[in-house]
Write a structure and sequence with these properties.
Number of strands: 0
Strand content: under 5%
Distance between the termini: 41 Å
Structural class: mainly alpha
Largest sheet: none
Order of helices and strands: HHH
């Protein structure tokens, strides 16, 4: 890991019922908060890629220290986005395990 100060990623739950629901073509209703979680994670990942681009190309400024800072920020953003997505997927797995999906 590039930054040992970051917390460990959440553990993904067993997705057996989620995969089964996917194969069955089950539908699910998302709340506005859940959609916001998804868009926030995607936005965070896009920002991380921009930071990584700046670090690799030097577009963020000259100097090795500046590049390292961009790379570290990028890694932290990607880490955060991964954590958000794992937590979101875990919540969907919980809904599938409880048979709280909407049908076909």
């Amino acid at each position: 890991m590039i930054d040992e100060s970051l917390p460990p990623l959440p553990v993904q739950k067993d997705a057996t019922n989620w995969r089964k629901a996917k194969l069955e073509g089950r539908k699910i209703t998302l709340t506005v908060a859940e959609v916001d979680t998804l868009t926030s994670s995607i936005s965070t990942m896009q920002q991380a890629f921009l930071q990584l681009f700046a670090a690799v190309t030097g577009a963020g400024g000259d100097g090795e220290d500046k590049r390292k800072a961009f790379a570290k920020e990028s890694f932290a953003s990607m880490h955060q986005s991964n954590a958000i997505m794992i937590e979101f997927l875990n919540s969907m797995i919980d809904r599938a395990d409880k048979d709280e999906l909407d049908g076909k």
